[in-house]
Amino acid sequence: MRIIAGQFRSRTLVAPAGLGTRPTSDRLRETLFNVLAPRIQGAAFLDLFAGSGAVGIEALSRGAASVAFVERAPAALAVLRANLAKLGVNDACKVHPVGVGGWLRKPEKGPATSSERTRSQTFDLVFLDPPYDAAEDYAITLGLLGGAAGGLLNTGALIIAEHRGKGGSKETLEERYGALERTRLLVQGDAALSFYASSATDLPE
Asked: Going by DSSP bridges, is the β-strand pair 180-188/123-128 parallel, antiparallel, or unpaired?
């Protein structure tokens, strides 16, 4: 894998070995960040089910002010931390080594451990990429972001879910999750990106 554009353009990244983690392809990342280009500069970015961290690192390379990564798999965490150390960007990043659902459900608090979130942590852009067949993970994560964990989202925040494309065996995502409404669907081969916001006017065409 490589970083496509920005400060770290063409730098290589390592992906976890095996089939447990499916990195977002370079082509799909390029499509994603073409859409996010007007929003990325100075944004607070949240990368859920982060894996190698390729998407969050791409955001940082393109001008995001900070990135929080949530990932609990030990092999993926080791690779994620190695990628961040290799680029020397640890100061702008926070790694939360816990499950996404549990992290989103944690009550906001003051001083926190590395796995907890604080009142100051809110985000402009959220990306999630659980295993394509993990329908429950999609439903729980988007449901929390559209409900109990909505306080993590800044006004006008955009949530993007990578999932199986319509050419796959099933389309798993709903049009609405609580306060979130799907505003755009981009299909690229066997992968797709669903964009959610609190208002359909929030997403640029």
From this structure: unpaired
